[in-house]
Amino acid sequence: MSDRVIVNEVGLRDGLQNQPRHVPVEGKLEMLDALIAAGIRSIEATSFVSPKAVPQMADASELYGRLPLDAGVNFEALVPNEKGYERAVAAGAKTVALVLASTEEMNQKNIGMSLERATEVNIAVIKRANREGIKPRSYISTAVGCPYEGDVAPEVVFDIAARMFEAGAAEVAVADTIGSGDPAQVKFIFETLAKRYGPERLAAHFHDTRGLALANSWAALECGVRKFDTSIGGLGGCPFAPGATGNVATEDVVHMLERSGFETGIEIEGLRKAVAVAEKHTEQKLGGRVLSWIESQERRKQAKASAAAE
Ligand code: COA
Ligand code: ZN
Description:
This protein has helices at residues 11-15, 25-37, 60-65, 82-91, 104-111, 115-131, 154-167, 183-197, 213-222, 250-259, 268-282, 289-309; strands spanning 6-9, 42-47, 74-79, 95-101, 135-141, 145-146, 150-151, 171-176, 202-206, 227-230. By secondary structure, the chain is an alpha/beta fold.
């Protein structure tokens, strides 16, 4: 199994979609530049959703048109339906991420469709993307728990994954949207899916609502998963999933992986700068646990140095 792990930054989409303060395109591009400078090479840059549903993403087409396409970055865009797909492709997207929640009510709240209708729409867009040379990624959201319907049986996730792969999804990302999963559940889901489809076709997407996101990431890693969605500074939440907090922080995942001998190609110091940029634009304090630790080490060093100088 490869030691190389793809850290897919989703802060600009999953993170910003929930922010009360609108971050203009210039601010988003500044965040992107800082992330790329840190070594991030896979980014979900935005979503082509209804601007009424998510005003923060109303600038998706403009942002996509201004992405640094020569930076060697895999850019992805979330699309909820055919119209979103068309807008994304017109803006230059080469990879799209479809989204299907595991429950009836979450689909209704999130994209205004029944589970059955949303499944049909996902399948139709995945097929069309394949015909048109666009890579379709498939999110199964609220894969462990739903804010409206409670616990979700793993069989539901297996069934959706089967239908998405059958339709032609290149990759399935299992998303614990409200951060209700534990490592044992995560292990069972990913172990089963990895056996059926191969771990290289899977990705993990965890929110840190109950502080289990790193443990869950490790559980998925042990099942062979090598692609993780993370958010700079832990930015995020979902406007349609009450109580959900941000994604697992990019810097915490990178720190865990690099310390454990995996390769990400990403520098923590660079991420620290990216967190500062995100803080400036969102006007909130961000940052994973590893940054608090780095800062405390620096304070100690400074205190020692000034004591020695006295
Ligand atoms: N992008 C922009 N506009 C869109 C759109 C898209 N992807 N899909 C539909 N619309 C427009 C329609 O053209 C229509 O416009 P009009 O009022 O000017 O005629 C309007 O939105 C309503 O269309 P309808 O098909 O009835 O959609 P809806 O109002 O039921 O909304 C979604 C459906 C999917 C567009 C909306 O629920 C949505 O964007 N959800 C995404 C939520 C999200 O981002 N969640 C977090 C990520 S998972
Ligand atoms: Zn999410």
